[in-house]
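Hi support team,

I submitted a single chain yesterday and got back a structure, but I'm not sure I'm reading the token output correctly. Could someone confirm the output below corresponds to the sequence I sent? I've pasted both exactly as they appear in my results page.

Thanks,
R.
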Amino acid sequence: MDSSINCPQCDNTAIVKNGMTHYNKQKYKCTHCHRQFVINGQAWFISEEDKQIINRLLAERISLRGICRVVHISMTWLMGYIVCLYTQSPQDLFFRITEKKKLFKGRIYLKLLEIESDEMWSYVGKKDNKQWIWIAMDKDTRQIIAVYVGDRSETSAQALWDSIPDSVKENGIFHTDDWDAYKGVIPSEKHACSKQKKYTNHIERFNNTVRQRVSRLVRKTLSFSKKLENHIGAIKYFICDYNLSLCQLRL
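Hi R., thanks for writing in. Yes, this is the structure output for that exact sequence:
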């Protein structure tokens, strides 16, 4: 190859031809850093400011196509970006235990953690492919402790229970509805099961928030997930953002 051609990324001259573009322009490839380019091609990249905007938009009720239109990016780039972004969501969902105290007859006592748990229906690809979202919430702080996406069986209830930190299990009382799957998983001495909605009203309200804020979960939406991995990633990403927002409000 002509040694006068330099790689725009690493400035190396080890360049080889690499096919043609859709516009019939010669493509080149650097054998050193594997960058592909064309001579006098337009420099195109996503700025850090735009990435921050994308991160915020992903936590709002807007479709991926809508994000592409707002930030002027391609769907191909955005799909690759969210896959990397979703994998960075921590397993603890940024949940932090806060010391809970109550005053009784002039003495301070530590309060038990009150946990509300519920499941909500969703789907991936088509409505026949149901995916239930199991969520556990700290009643006092409204933080989401754990989330699991699966079917509505006892196996999924067990997976949710396993994802809850041991310190929460030891110091918490768990409020659920009358769904049988919970009864086979949560120890009876820590399980407060009731058909009355008042014991799970906070988690029920959060379910409504998720449906309003995550476009994939809006009823009769066209923005439904096509892949289970992205479905789970989008839900966890929103919950992490939600927990961080609660932490900032308490500061």
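A quick pointer for reading it: The longest helix spans residues 228-250. Let us know if anything else looks off.

Best,
Support desk
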